[in-house]
Specification:
about 425 residues; binds flavin-adenine dinucleotide
Length: about 425
């Protein structure tokens, strides 16, 4: 059996589901294809759940010699390097290092700011239409610090965000515990980003958006994106229910996107920053109200439907390297100092992969030289935040509308890699 639609979206994480919804809202018949039976089965399943609208400035690779040495020796708990992976991942890390300058950080901040400014509203609209407003909570999130050095770091970060109109609240210990009474005494203060939203269940949120897509007539199919082939004036993909054809195809395969891009001749400096999560029982009745980052140790704890979810920072490894408990085990003792976490609730840590490009901007726009093929991936630490708004931007481009922001800073050609 074969079926023809207007557009195929490959990948049903937050990015693909959002692109599919934005296209169907513009009257396109869309097939959303994933190798898994339901949406949000990979990275979008287990993240920290913050719609992190203050995150306009990218995370940089360390540049100071002392910081590099600490990171290289796995002495900085904010990151973890799998040494065996180094020969394969070193070129990508080098590109990331080169892109990690103050000037490029500010340039990226400038182009990310208008996306971030519209990101929460786009989520709220989708959640309202999906009857899932209860899955988005207000109250922001907190970067807690343990020392004067941490305070300087947190305040310095806040200062850098001022030109973007971001005005957090500065908390001493008393103000911190007024908001989060169960944060341990090693936390001496924090910076509260008040505007971001968070979700107690990122997978449920994305699945509610996928259900909205189905309700609006969209079809979700199981199939392998790597079966994509040009055909006549468009493209075909094999699915469990037959061949699906369309004029337009969106690659939204998150951390697996580069594989398909390479097949069609586009080689990008793509890499992943892996991260783990583990759920914990809350000790007694102590909990958290909003996500809290232990700034100097680089892990986050978010109150989730499943328990208190600890998420780790960046593990530098190959995408398909087997999971390792090492990073979680490095930070868990710190988390026990600061948060009311009891027994582990999951048998093994969950592993996710943040899809990254060295300038920490996603790739949004046409596939160079392949009419009808579109790119929507590389949302790094912020895919939950950016999925809906970049879905809108891409749909505007596909449908020939005036894009609400200039898409040029997100095009694939910026790496000059064709
Ligand atoms: C620990 C951690 C914490 C995070 N916290 C946050 C946060 O608080 N806020 C935030 O904004 N972001 C956060 N992120 C980042 C965010 O989760 C990602 O950027 C986002 O989920 C990426 O979404 P995606 O749709 O691009 O990829 P994915 O969710 O991985 O979706 C890709 C889809 O492609 C499918 N696929 C792959 N290959 C094929 C194939 N060959 N055929 C068919 N289908 C295929 C997969 O099955 C999958 O469903 C975090 C990430 C991690 C790891």
């Amino acid at each position: 059996m074969s079926e023809t639609v207007d557009a195929i979206v490959l990948g049903a994480g937050i990015v693909g589901v959002s692109a599919a919804l934005a296209l169907s809202a513009r009257g396109r018949a869309v097939a959303l294809i994933d190798r898994l039976p339901h949406a949000a089965g990979e990275t979008s399943f287990g993240n920290s759940g913050i719609v992190q609208t203050e995150g306009v400035l990218p995370y940089l690779f360390p540049r100071a010699a002392g910081d590099i040495a600490r990171a290289a020796m796995n002495r900085d708990p904010r990151a973890h390097i799998r040494y065996r992976a180094l020969p394969s991942i070193a070129p990508a890390i080098w590109r990331y290092f080169l892109a990690s300058t103050q000037a490029r950080k500010l340039a990226t901040g400038k182009v990310m700011a208008p996306l971030m400014a519209a990101a929460a509203e786009e989520h709220l609209k989708l959640a309202r239409d999906a009857a899932a407003s209860g899955l988005l909570r207000k109250g922001g999130w907190i970067k807690a610090y343990r020392s004067e050095r941490g305070r300087d770091l947190a305040h310095g970060e806040a200062e850098e965000l001022k030109p973007f109109g971001i005005r957090p609240a500065f908390l001493d210990r008393a103000a911190l515990t007024a908001l989060e009474p169960n944060v341990g005494e090693k936390a001496i203060g924090g910076v509260h980003y008040t505007e971001p939203l968070s979700t107690p269940d990122p997978a449920a949120l994305v699945r509610s958006y996928a259900a909205l897509f189905a309700q609006r007539g969209g079809r979700m199919e199981r199939g392998d994106a790597l079966s994509l082939e040009p055909s006549g004036a468009g493209w075909t993909v094999k699915t469990d229910s037959g061949l699906v054809a369309a004029r337009d195809v969106v690659i939204a395969l998150g951390p697996w996107s580069d594989e398909l891009a390479r097949r069609f001749g586009l080689s990008l400096p793509f890499f992943v920053k892996r991260g783990y999560h583990m759920h914990y029982e809350a000790k007694g009745n102590a909990g958290l109200i909003r996500p809290v980052l232990d700034l100097e140790r680089g892990y986050l704890v978010t109150p989730m439907a499943q328990g208190l979810r600890l998420t780790t920072g960046a593990e530098f490894a190959r995408r398909e390297d087997p999971p390792s408990a090492a990073h979680l085990e490095r930070v868990e003792p710190y988390a026990r100092e600061l948060f009311p976490i009891g027994a582990r609730k999951d048998a093994t840590p969950w592993l996710g992969r943040r899809p990254c490009l060295p300038d920490m901007r996603p790739v949004i726009g046409p596939f160079p030289g392949k009419p009808g093929l579109w790119l929507d991936f590389g949302h790094h630490h912020l895919g939950l935040t950016l999925g809906p708004i970049t879905g809108r931007l891409l749909a505007e481009m596909i449908c020939g509308e005036a894009p609400f922001v200039d898409p040029a800073p997100f095009k694939a050609e910026r790496f000059g890699s064709r």
